Amino acid sequence: MDIVTPVIIRGTGSFVPEQTLTNDHFASYLDTSDEWIVQRTGIRKRHKAGPGESTSTIAAEACRRAVTDAGMDLQDIDLLILCTATPDMPIPSTSCILKHQLGIEEAASFDISAACSGLVYGMVVAGQMLTTGLFKNALVCGAEVLTRYCDPEDRSTCILFGDGAGAVVMSKSPDPERGFLYNNLGADGSKWDFIWMPAGGTREPISQKVVDERLHYIRMRGRDVYKIAVTKMQRMVDDALAACGLEPNELSMAIMHQSNLRIIESVRTRLKLPPEKVAVNIDEYGNTSAASIGLALDAARKDGRVKEGDLILLMAFGAGVTWGTIIARM
Ligand code: ACO
């Protein structure tokens, strides 16, 4: 098994806002129930940013924790990538606001917009930029405040999403046995309107009409997304393992984007992996889009489920539609 991208994850960090919303909160004013939400999605609660919090502030906390975990100083970072579909504002990139909050003096910074696949996109891009030697230490963060993009009156979306941030510090691998064995990114733009926010951009700028028609909120063709997410993720995992000549049981941990427990379970069943080898945080956090894999990876490293030398699979699918897979030797 060749290391195709010689980079390692040196540190991880995560953060969620303190405030939580339970399923009963939604059931108190919408035609829904805890039972429906748990059965269809696996979600029990989600975190919600409070006053004064935004994507950059929660990202900053996750980033500080990741850099400390890596045993580094923020000034060692020369590449900062923020993966988000919920920026602080359209201009400038939220990564610049984040960089300022972190007090990082010298670093290139930019945002990646690939929705739920964001962190995998960010890590693959960072891996390439580190491998060429252009940069030495990358800080890649997936952070979202999706609760502010959700229509509180739309039961088909508002129950799904939560806020959070997960960050990784990446550097060139000091060990030829450690690194990424497989990177794959893709997108199918013909399905852009499977998950979308109709207004707030240049096509339909904010106006009174937009607000009246609630076009500034996320819309989703949930059933359509579900069907292609299941099929695509099963194919992605097969392709990744075949390309590396790996059997599923050689994986120490599979960390998939957390959009629906039933989707995660369908991939787990295909892989015939025991539950403890498949990360699940959707019950606690809901769908945190670009943050979900970072939150799960950090938890798995901190509680010892992922250790140096382990083989892990990261896999995401989201709006765009976009997708991405990494197999890494930690
Ligand atoms: N409570 C009660 N009933 C509801 C709710 C709710 N919160 N939401 C929808 N329903 C109703 C629907 O109105 C529908 O009623 P009808 O049969 O009378 O028309 C019924 O439940 C079934 O609706 P479906 O949408 O078919 O339900 P489904 O089982 O597909 O579950 C869900 C919906 C959870 C959204 C699922 O489709 C899903 O998880 N989709 C994938 C989401 C995803 O992967 N997103 C990608 C990432 S997101 C990103 O990139 C930002």
The CATH class turns out to be: Alpha Beta
CATH architecture: 3-Layer(aba) Sandwich
The shape, in one word, is globular
Structural class: alpha/beta
- Briefly note the CATH topology name: Peroxisomal Thiolase, Chain A, domain 1
Question: How many strands?
Answer: 13
* Uncertain runs: none
Bound molecules: acetyl coenzyme *A
Radius of gyration: 19 Å
The biggest sheet amounts to:
5 strands, mixed
The count of helical stretches stands at 10
Explain what the structure shows.
The protein is built from ten helices and 13 strands. It is of the alpha/beta class and 330 residues long. It has a single domain, classed as Thiolase/Chalcone synthase (Peroxisomal Thiolase, Chain A, domain 1, 3-Layer(aba) Sandwich). The chain has a five-stranded mixed β-sheet, sandwiched between helices. Helix 3 crosses helix 4 and helix 7 packs parallel to helix 8. The chain is globular, with a radius of gyration of 19 Å. The protein starts with 6 loop residues before the first strand and ends with a strand. The mean pLDDT is 97. It binds acetyl coenzyme *A. Acetyl coenzyme *A (ACO) binds next to helix 2 and helix 7. The site of acetyl coenzyme *A has 23 residues, from helix 2 and helix 7.
